[in-house]
Design brief:
Elements lengths: L1 H14 L1 H4 L9 H5 L3 H10 L5 H8 L5 H11 L23 H5 L3 H5 L13 H4 L5 H7 L11
């Protein structure tokens, strides 16, 4: 019987990966991280361009079609298109910028556990930066990501 249930769950998880893994972390926004990591939060807010990345697209929004604007969200907001990620400025203002979690991964489990270090990405790899800092961007902005810049 248990096997039947397990394989049913496994089959279900193929179609609804987020549902069966109820423990899967979702995005909470940088301000929530700042409750406990005030130093990192302060320097991120003061120095990282990511802290105002939504403004960068808002400035150009008038010149963009709604479809083009949505394309910007993937890199200029936190978790767009992923469980608990950015939806719109009205619905999820706390995820409007490219926040802590674009590097450290979704943080709800880490936060709810009171800071269990196993439940957050400690050392984001350079590989993970390339999702947004891709070849095309690197060329057009003349930018090569440095591991410790742009964070805190
Ligand atoms: C309730 C307080 C709390 C909140 C909120 C919180 N953290 Fe933490 N965090 C901690 C504590 C405590 C540690 C230290 C754990 C340890 O050293 O065992 C920690 C450690 C970390 C580490 C280092 C992990 C390691 O392996 O040393 C990172 C990275 C981190 N937090 C990122 C975040 C991010 C990103 C957020 C927001 C999504 C966040 N934290 C929210 C309490 C918190
Ligand atoms: C979800 C997309 C995304 C990921 C992942 C990402 N970045 Fe960024 N990053 C951005 C955006 C967007 C900007 C530009 C913000 C603006 O100016 O509007 C930026 C800006 C920067 C800058 C410019 C300088 C500054 O002061 O902010 C640096 C450096 C940087 N990122 C480093 C990194 C590194 C290192 C990683 C990986 C550990 C990383 N980024 C991962 C989206 C991302
Ligand atoms: C694939 C990820 C990605 C997408 C999609 C994306 N951006 Fe960016 N954008 C970046 C990164 C990374 C940077 C930072 C590059 C750097 O600092 O060298 C950036 C920088 C910028 C900047 C410059 C900010 C500054 O301070 O110099 C503007 C403006 C901008 N993006 C607007 C947009 C708009 C508008 C869209 C949608 C049409 C968009 N971006 C889509 C990743 C992206
Ligand atoms: C651009 C990617 C990036 C962003 C954005 C970012 N971090 Fe980090 N963070 C890193 C990297 C890389 C390390 C590892 C640094 C090391 O090992 O020395 C790190 C380390 C940490 C640590 C471990 C202690 C330390 O300072 O080394 C904490 C806590 C932390 N980050 C919290 C945060 C919080 C809170 C935010 C948002 C306010 C944030 N980070 C935003 C890349 C990022």
């Amino acid at each position: 019987m248990q096997n039947v249930i397990l394989s049913a769950l496994a089959a279900l998880s193929l179609f609804f990966p987020g549902i069966v893994l109820a423990e899967e972390a979702i995005f909470v926004g940088s301000k929530a991280c700042g409750e406990c990591h005030s130093d990192q939060f302060k320097s991120y807010n003061s120095y990282a361009k990511k802290a105002s990345s939504y403004k960068s697209i808002k400035i150009l929004a008038d010149k963009l079609t709604p479809l083009e604007l949505v394309e910007c969200y993937g890199c200029h907001t936190t978790g767009y298109g992923r469980p608990g990620g950015f939806v719109s400025i009205e619905k999820t203002p706390e995820l409007a910028n490219s926040g802590c979690e674009v590097c450290h991964g979704p943080g709800s489990s880490h936060v709810n556990s009171g800071g269990d270090a196993k439940l957050i990405v400690r050392n984001p790899t350079l590989e993970s930066c390339k999702v947004c800092h891709n070849e095309e961007r690197v060329r057009s902005f003349g930018f090569k990501p440095l591991k410790y810049a742009g964070a805190h």
